[in-house]
Amino acid sequence: MVYSPPVQTIRLVSVGIVALSVLFCVRLYVIQVARADEFAQQAEQQAQGNTAPFDRGSIFFTTKNGTRVPAASLQRGFTLRADSSLVRDANAAFEALAPIVDLSQEKWSAFVSRGVGHKDIAQRLSPADADAVRALDVPGITIVPERWRFYPQGETAAHTLGFVGYAENAFGGRYGLERHYEDILARVGISPYANFFTELLSFARSKDGARAGDVEISLEPSVQEFLQTKLAEAQKKFSSRETAGLVINPATGAILALAAVPTFNPNVFSQEKDWRVFVNPLVENVYEFGSIMKPLTLAAGIDAGAITRESTYRDEGSLTLDGKTIYNFDKKARGIVSMQEVLNQSLNTGAAHVALAMGTAEFARSMLSFGFGDETGIDLPNEASGLVKNLESPRQIEYATASFGQGIATTPIAMVRALSVLANGGLLPNPHLAARIAYTLGVSTKPSFGEPKRVLTTETVETVTSMLVEVVDRALLGGSLAMKHWSVAAKTGTAQMATPKGGYYDDRYLHSFFGYFPAYEPRFLVFLYTVEPKGVTYASHTLAAPFFDIAKFLLNYYAVPPDR
Question: Domains in the chain, start-ordered, CATH in brackets?
């Protein structure tokens, strides 16, 4: 009697054979196609008795059309390695090599005289130079493949990308995305000679055990370069200590551009004399931003029912609370004024009126609901928390000053997240950079940064948006910058800089400017600030022009239809 296995067993075995065949083909593809260059280089180095070449995942910008553009990748070249024990004629070797590689007589003589054996004499040689050295066939001289981290766009997005380097005898990401996504970007040498089934049935992993891959980010290279250009122009024109800004999609939290000046080139970061240039001030520093807080104060007051758009108050030019007096910027009284004029003329007493009308406890709750005092969770390292202890004070004066952006401090990115509520229908978005993680075997995922939280009603933000549009159309430099075919909601901020011992400087200011457009269906929110500009007092004279240059660029670059 012949045994016939059950049909289910046959099907199960068939499925298993097909699955193994598919995995086998995937493995062959990885070795022979996807990673052919890497394995070939490993093989060449193993043949020469060298360690595995440097490897690391890439970071990509994403264009408006979805195309990937390398932001951080690997550059391939060659190292010239010498063995002093095999060099027969040191002088002749030097004379032959010097025209091709950057090699000093002093350095060469010291190497030969010490007899140290193998030493890397020159690095990052081009293929042409490597071929020229090989053709010399100098005894004791070998050419070894080399790879290193390379940033094709130079200074573009340097603060966002960061760089790789040594710290505490460990090599890895330092600053920026390189550090935040170290567990994804770092690599353990993945050998074609490793256990077949071990690698076949698991993803390639980073040195920390996480899945290895590339990081695709939302920064749009053309937008990033335009932003950096405008920031550099403002920095130079006003001799500021620091100028920075970003462009964000307020609906999704995806950041399209983020930059600060002064900046650096991550390809030659070791040439920088002051390490502080590597710090990303948009994430790591806190500031008192001044009057760009007023739209949030009015929105909180409207949402709480403490005021309406039609509400008025008596402006006497100053207000004394707890023995302290606050003033409008010009110390002038205006009599009975509306909430619209609080924004149009940026009246400190008007913002304080709203906070006190709400009650200090409700005002503090509202400010904290915007995320002030918390980290945003942006995917960049070293994010700082805001300084909001004044919102716990028993005195009214602290709440009054907080209403117009003094006395509490926040990071720029936290300020952007809060302001985005006005452009996002009352929802608090989650700012982020990573758009996709592409793992080495072809699987990809979109990182999750959490769901937005409702902070204001849609009716409230529609009201405040229309008020900010009127600010641009009528009040900002007399309405001279208003755009004929697009509505823009915007506000300036001019804040005194705090002294180290408490109090404020009389002659040092931080200027800020934010706006979103098209105002009623926003595609973009742009935020700019500059620290201690020289020769000018108000933000309308430093940042309004670059803001509208950026706005016009974005509207044209993305072909956004007119909304009016």
Answer: 22-52 (no CATH), 75-150 (3.90.1310.10), 221-557 (3.40.710.10)
